[in-house]
Amino acid sequence: MISIFKKEVAQFFSSLTGYLAIAVFLLLMGLFLFIFPDTSIFDYGYATLDKFFDLAPYILLLLVPAITMRSFSEEFKTGTWELLKTKSISAWQIVTGKYLAALAVVLLTLLPTVIYVFTIYQLSINQSIDSGAIMGSYFGLVFLVAVFTAIGLFCSTLTNNGVVAFLLASFVCFAVYMGFGAVSKMPGLQGGADYWIESLGIDTHYLSMSRGVLELKDVAYFIIVAAAFLLFAKRNIVKK
Length: 240
Hints:
Layout: H1 2-12, H2 16-34, H3 50-68, H4 73-78, H5 80-85, H6 91-110, H7 114-123, H8 131-156, H9 162-184, H10 194-199, H11 202-210, H12 216-239
Helix pairs in contact: 1-6, 2-3, 3-6, 3-8, 3-9, 6-8, 6-12, 8-9, 8-11, 8-12, 11-12
Keywords: Cell membrane, Membrane, Transmembrane, Transmembrane helix
Subcellular location: Cell membrane
Transmembrane segments: 12-35, 55-72, 99-121, 133-155, 162-180, 219-237
């Protein structure tokens, strides 16, 4: 598993694509937070990173699938999957190694955004910020990308075409993130099953963590959803 982890990380950073994906994410976040007037934190009048945590999931909907799309699809396309099957390693170890590698790359992408916290801290009056809410939001973002990465890995097992895997992962991530919330607002569900349907979506639990409160139900939700998609991925590669 460790060898697969190292191979996947090295492969991602062996081409310009890996660095470009990270650069695009950081560039977009910088533009939205400091340049574009409608989302600039300078126009808020108070020190907050709410806009960052509101916008980040939508950019990650594209960034994470871009990182995971080649995880298995490339193996199937080039025929290296047949070689990998001959190694003395289980299907679960293969999935776990690739998952942890992709997750590590995404978390590495998020790491430079900590500078936004220091920026807000320096700009705030008396260097006072809501550190609890920011910490909770970062925890929520970590759990969010953990689920997105699992979804992306699962979609990569469905096809040998990286572009198709990217599109599938982006759609599924979007559906799980916002789809249940949208369905719960349908008129026929108001005052009844809307709460339970909304609770199936990621956005509800992510917003709950963004308030600075870490509840067991939210943590358990992210762990269960990520584990479920990893199990689906394992099932798919076992079939192959």
